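Issue: ligand-bound run for uridine-5'-diphosphate-xylopyranose - logging full I/O for the record.

Environment: standard queue, default settings, no custom constraints.

Inputs:
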Amino acid sequence: MAGQEHQRRQRIVLFPLPFQGHISPMLQLAALLHARGLAVTVLHTGFNAPDPTRHPTEFTFVPIHESFPAELLALNAACEAPFRESLASLLLRGGQDQDVACAVVDGQCYSALRAAHQLGVPALALRTDSAATFRSMLAYPRLRDAEERLDELVPDLEPHRARDLIRVDGSDTDALCGFIGSVDDAMRASASGVVINTFEGIEASELAKIQRDLSRPKFAVGPLHLLSQASVEQGLHAPDRGCLAWLDAHPPRSVLYVSLGSVACVDRGVFEEMAWGLAVSGVPFLWVVRPGMVSGGGEEVPPLPDGFSEEIRSRGKIVSWAPQREVLAHAAIGAFWTHCGWNSTLESVCEGVPMLVQPCFADQMVNARYVTHEWGVGMEVGEEIEKGRVAKAVTKLMVGEDAAQVRGRAHHRLQKQASAATSLSIASLVHYISSL
Ligand code: UDX
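Outputs:
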């Protein structure tokens, strides 16, 4: 025992961006590394702080104090000094029984990658989006003027067209190029490697190209939610579990699950067309109507259109937050109408659920294009959200002639590949961390 007390453990310090789609994969990675013997410290912002009681008691959570701007350039600027101070103080305190082996920082947080590197701490960048997104993001500055060729395939980025490239609303192109340039620089100058929440079975060719283009070790460690078997709910909101009993009362593959994730907002007009499209389709549905999801409607749960509740009482269920992974695993779910956030996309892939895609911003167009044109496991809801078109798209995916084929590909090909993904990459990542 006495000998063990003097053993030095290796500690990793993680820093997620404070958004649901970024926190979950970072903490899933933390659980996997912890299970392989590494000690875990999570530095986090006060905004959207993770709840320590939902994670292993051995995890240490350290808030860093910053004023929180939502825009990524400003967020990077605001985080840099507090992250540096927190990491430096961990290095001073940790000397007795723990070495900080490395920092794992969200790949969008170039300022923290740089700060870790400057402090002499090896830093790994965690990409919480896909390999295809990472590549198309780095290619953006060279393609920014392709406006007139929006529908052409982009060489070396097929099946993407210029219109599928990353989009950040409210950010001008120069600012976006500046942000991407900083991410690229930090990746090359400050990161000791890149860790990506994807797996060979779905992105082999993109991963090979990253290997070719980026002279940094890369680790495809996904699907993280599956490999980490995270039993702990990492959601920032409490899910309404009543919808699972509601699903129990439905036949297999009969219900459409509708959710646009944790950030995307739609106009009131689009929201109403979505509602009436669901009504006209006649398909049973479970719809996540999140507080704040309608632009300009404040942080309240948006009111449903007049007469809608009566219309769908018998075959619709509305919740403000769902236990999404359990919902997607439920036999009653036939398809997922999604914004194609990367976590939602991976979760759907892993359950073999076909998708109706409605990408809204950022990487969602890239993911949507993969769903429809690379994997063939989904259909588009259409550029214009209008109730007649919505109803048509919903019925086509749920019960139309092509539905069985799409479902077959989702179920027999993609889901099988996902369940064949192994944690070998995690083992090689741990080995790499130990060597740093
Ligand atoms: C954000 C960006 O929008 C997205 O483009 C990027 O890929 C990741 O960050 P977000 O909107 O949060 O993503 O979507 P997504 O990545 O799909 O993550 C949402 C998470 O919330 C999923 O893990 C999903 O299971 C969970 N969720 C969502 C719930 O648990 N319940 C819900 O009701 C809705």
